[in-house]
Design a protein that fits this description.
By secondary structure, this protein is of the alpha+beta class. The chain has two helices and four strands, in the order αββββα. The strands form two sheets. Strands 1-2 form a two-stranded antiparallel sheet. Strands 3-4 form a two-stranded antiparallel sheet. β1 and β2 form a beta hairpin. The N and C termini lie far apart (about 40 Å).
């Protein structure tokens, strides 16, 4: 349903030398969290992600916006993620049947 819209957003970002990424943000001080699609320049660490890579960027008092702490590595991938989701669904079914563990 949204493939065309996402493709248009990705094309617009690419035309500007940017990439589109799905990013979650947590602001501890404000007590807020959000998940959005955002555009990033090719020089941004998020732009270098490929495949199922994951990245977490920490901005703290010690690691400011100019030099954040970046942790990057491979994600679980589709098969491992699907197995985890399936396991969670089985646990929900067990709980619905009154056999929570």
């Amino acid at each position: 349903q949204y493939d065309g819209e996402m493709a248009a957003q990705a094309a617009a970002a690419a035309a500007s030398g940017e990439v589109l990424r799905y990013v979650g943000r947590v602001d501890v001080a404000a007590g807020t969290a959000s998940v959005t699609t955002s555009r990033y320049p090719a020089s941004h660490p998020f732009a270098a992600l490929q495949g199922s890579d994951n990245i977490v960027v920490f901005t703290t008092e010690r690691y400011g916006a100019d030099t954040p702490l970046i942790v990057r590595g491979p994600g679980a991938g589709a098969e491992v993620t699907a197995t985890g989701v399936f396991s969670d669904l089985l646990q929900v079914l067990r709980c619905c049947a009154g056999a929570c563990t």
